[in-house]
Amino acid sequence: MTSLEKKVADLRETLHTYNYQYHVLDQPTVPDAEYDRLMQELRTLESANPELTAADSPTQRIGGQPLEGFNKVEHQVPMLSLANAFNDQDLRDFDRRVREGLGIEQVDYVCELKIDGLAVSLRYDQGIFQQGATRGDGNIGEDITHNLKTIRSIPLKINETSTIEVRGEAFMPKQSFLSLNKDKEMREEEPFANPRNAAAGSLRQLDPKIAARRNLDIFIYAVGKWEAGDLDRHSDRLTYLTSLGFKINPEWKKCQGIDQVIDYVESWVTKRDELPYEIDGIVIKVDRLDYHDVLKTTAKSPRWAMAYKFPAEEAVTTLNDVILSVGRTGAVTPTALLEPVKVAGTTVQRASLHNEDYIKEKDIRINDTVVIKKAGDIIPEVVRVIPEQRPKDAEPFSMPAECPSCGAELVRLDQEVALRCINPNCPAQLKEGLTHFVSRNAMNIDGLGEKVIEQLYDNQLVANVADLYQLKRDELLGLERMGEKSVSNLLSAIEASKANSLERLLFGLGIRFVGSKAAKTLARAFDDIDQLRAASRESLEAVDEIGKKMADSIVRFFAEEKVGQLIDRLRQVGVNMHYRGPKPTVNQEQSIFHNKTIVLTGKLEQLTRNEAKEKIEMYGGKVTGSVSAKTDLLIAGEDAGSKLTKAEQLGIEIWTEQQFIDQIDK
Ligand code: IVH
After folding, report:
1. Ligand 1 atom closest to Cα of 280?
2. How many CB atoms lie within 10 A of CB 385?
3. Please, what sign has the CA dihedral across residues 388, 389, 390, 392?
4. Is ligand 1 within 6 A of the CB of residue 169?
5. Other C-beta atoms within 10 Å of 4: how many?
6. Which residues, at least 6 apart from 662, have a Cβ–Cβ distance to it below 8 Å?
7. Which residues of 120-154 are buried (b: 16+ CB within 10 A; e: fewer)?
8. Fold of 427-497
């Protein structure tokens, strides 16, 4: 092994270890920045020495190009489903069948959480992750290796050289689901109904970049084709798979006899709400593997396992009224006010009715008895009415023709389902805009709840977001429930927000379709708000993740005179307009500035000297003060003098500032 090969191998090993500690054990041992630094080093070495790149390199997690379509994969061992149990009796019947089939008194079972995601199969040859597939119809699934590789808890390499196939459930944690849907809402896209659909949708993408952004995870719970050594029990397999570096759900438990199984099941009925991911039941498996062979499988499911399904988290209550709210973008949405009722561990008083079409289609009326459900056990919604229980005084609901806040006529834009108020001075929209500006992912100003904003607006202390920065102590003290202490806290939160990095301001301004992730991408790419303001549609679209719809919306937003004035005022009051987060890691090797000696001269118009220098250095170039035979490139601004003349004499390449910027944009 050459010293370079050894260096690459060591880097990979270290990164695999850090990755395992972080994503499987949940116990990071180094700061993210250190991980990123080593990853960058490995990337640089691999791109300079492509012959050293390997399928199991941690750099290969999002390596692939988008696919044209999915290939079919035949499962060597079919991926079966499970028979369902819905109550204790079903479980006892299952236990009786198992005991009779085996002719024994008491059976050892393993109980596991039934993760609500998508079943996948992972094949390892010679210890390397080779292929991952969906379940499909159980015999033939689809090859989704490129997407599965982006799940960081799937080891790319294991310490087992025989061919093995493991099976597990890929899923999206509740928190990731919520933020994904928030982002979708910002982009005005249809949200996912639940984390399972979100996980499935993410894994069925042709471009692995999308799955990589979705924060998916996996728990392994079974094996398929298995050429490794024999083990006696399912529980031994779980232990062995854990030792190979797979992520196994830690809540599994051995139970002696069905009574212990029922205790386990009952203990999870309420505890399930506290988990950071969704489960829809408990899976019960006979522990001894030789018993599996005795019991066999039916055409669809094994006789040695059972899925206990939790009752759907639904509740019945009365719909007392329908209220309307006007969002930041003017969309008017109906919400049901309910007789309070407990669902999935919390008391629910409001539920989404989505839009007018939804209400009509389900014929939902005020005073109706309705079934509500937490979609994805998270956001309550009205599922249906119980028509047999409809009271005589039930009233059909219809959307008003005017905005409930400002009285302007509501319209339906294009093909949208939502009714919108398009009055730019609508108080409800302006207040929502203020609430959004101060929210956690935006400027993060604590102490400005809806009630305070309402008062500030109604007392004409604040009409737009810049006014927040000119609020006086006395004005705030005059508001209801604002004492000395809360006013001081609020004023310091407002002051502190001035230092936020650009992406928070961008997100806070509420540019249509620009969610918090896109705001970050834009802030990184353009560095300050003036460059973003000046950016053309083309240069916006050239940024990864920024599509046409968003680019159009950004250009339209900044073209508005009112927006320009607002930004000027925010600048005057001291709000930071620069990106202050970590700089993007760039592949210096591939940059044309790499290892080049560059001289800057003349007056630069668009960048400061320092900014230009930082950019060149970021791409691996060196900036020097004087022109010599060693100079590779001169960037000449306005009124360049002797350095320009000298460079011309030496035949050195000369660029204008614009040429330089165009190259950087590329
Ligand atoms: S074992 C032959 N264990 O539930 C046994 N399945 O209805 C194969 N699932 O398709 C399944 N968590 O997608 C097993 N701990 C677990 C599970 C689990 C979730 C899913 C899996 C399967 C479905 C069965």
Report:
1. 19
2. 18
3. positive
4. yes
5. 12
6. none
7. bbbbbeebebebbbbbbeeeebbbbbbbbbbbbbb
8. DNA polymerase; domain 1 (1.10.150)
Tokens of 343: 């669902």
The arrangement of secondary structure in 588-665, i.e. its CATH architecture, is: 3-Layer(aba) Sandwich (3.40)
Would the CB of 82 count as within 6 Å of ligand 1?
yes
Annotation marks residue 114 as catalytic: yes
CATH number of 3-61: 1.10.287.610
Closest by Cα among 273, 276, 272 to 308: 272
| Catalytic annotation, pick one of 114, 174, 431, 643 | 114
Give dist(CA 216, CA 247) in Å, integer: 13
Superfamily of chain region 314-396 = Nucleic acid-binding proteins (2.40.50.140)
* CATH architecture designation of domain 502-572: Orthogonal Bundle (1.10)
CATH number of 84-309: 3.30.470.30
Averaged pLDDT of the chain? 91
What is the position in ligand 1's atom list of the atom closest to the CA of 135? Answer: 10
CA of 15 to the centre of ligand 1 (A): 31
Ligand 1 contact, 109 CB (< 6 A): no
Alpha-carbon distance of 253 to 264, in angstroms, equals 8
Q: What does residue 281 show for φ and ψ, rounded to 5 degrees?
A: 170, -165
Of all protein residues, the one whose alpha carbon is nearest to atom 21 of ligand 1 is 119
Which of 121, 169, 286 best tests ligand 1's pocket when mutated (most atoms within 8 Å of CB)? 169
Ligand 1 binding pocket includes 566 (Cβ within 6 Å) = no
pLDDT in tens, 217-267: 999 999 998 888 889 999 999 999 999 999 999 999 999 999 999 999 999
Tokens describing residue 645: 């003349």
Residue 412 CA, ligand 1 centroid: distance in Å: 45
Burial class (CB in 10 A: 0-12, 13-18, 19+), 48: exposed
How wide is the angle at C-alpha 499 spanned by C-alphas 497 and 500, nearest 5°? 70
Work out the pLDDT band at 290, boundaries 50, 70, 90: very high
Pick the residue whose CA is nearest to atom 10 on ligand 1.
81
115 pocket-lining for ligand 1 (C-beta < 6 Å): yes
Mean predicted confidence (pLDDT) in 409-432:
91
> At which residue do the structure tokens 């020495």 appear?
49
Environment class of 459 (CB within 10 Å of its CB; exposed 0-12, middle 13-18, buried 19+): exposed
Q: Which residue has the tokens 């900036």?
A: 623
Here the tokens at position 92 are 């006892």
Cα dihedral: 434, 437, 441, 443 (round 10)? -130
616 and 561 Cβ atoms separated by less than 8 Å: no
Q: What is the mean pLDDT of residues 404-411?
A: 94
Name the region of 616 (left: φ>0; alpha: ψ -120 to 50; beta: rest). Answer: alpha
Query: What is the Cα–Cα distance from 337 to 318, expressed in whole angstroms?
Result: 9
Cα of 81 vs centre of ligand 1, distance in Å, is: 7
pLDDT digits over 615-658, tens only? 887 887 888 888 888 899 999 988 888 899 999 998 999 999 98
List the chain domain ranges: 3-61, 84-309, 314-396, 427-497, 502-572, 588-665
pTM exceeds 0.85 for this model: no
Domains 427-497 and 502-572 share a fold: yes
